[in-house]
Design a protein that fits this description.
Helix content is about 0%, strand content about 50%. The chain has no helices and ten strands. It has strands at about 5-10, 15-20, 25-30, 35-45, 50, 60-65, 65-75, 90-95, 105, 115. Strand 1 and strand 2 form a beta hairpin.
Length: about 120
């Protein structure tokens, strides 16, 4: 995270992208807010020659207070060709995670994408 490109999203929330010295990008989000849930949607709509660790290039996640999470890793698929990654993010900060909405789309059970405490 320390070597990644840092973007402040909302009050106490940040997005980091590490794309130096890697063939792709690692996307990490951090919720330093002690009382609110952070919702992030990521759409890597203009992407070519990469594969996602989430199986999709579009994700939506709810991050609990005081936690960090790898939301996606995009890796170059064919080393003989170049690759392109362009992503957009949407953010929301709320006091409670809605019960009717899944916490992660696509699901992340048992993976490196689980949130962990700061």
């Amino acid at each position: 995270v320390a070597r990644g490109e840092h973007r402040d999203a909302l009050e106490g929330c940040s997005v980091y992208q590490l794309n130096r010295k890697v063939a792709g990008v690692i996307m990490v989000v951090e919720n330093r807010n002690p009382n609110r849930w952070f919702r992030i949607s990521c759409d890597s709509y203009n992407t070519s020659n990469v594969v996602s660790t989430r199986g999709q290039i579009t994700t939506c996640d709810w991050l609990p207070p005081l936690s960090r999470m790898i939301i996606m890793i995009l890796t170059q698929l064919d080393e003989t060709c170049g690759f392109k990654i362009q992503s957009s993010y949407k953010f929301n900060l709320v006091s409670e995670c809605p019960v009717e909405e899944p916490r992660h789309k696509p699901a992340i059970e048992g993976s490196i994408h689980r949130a962990f405490p700061l």
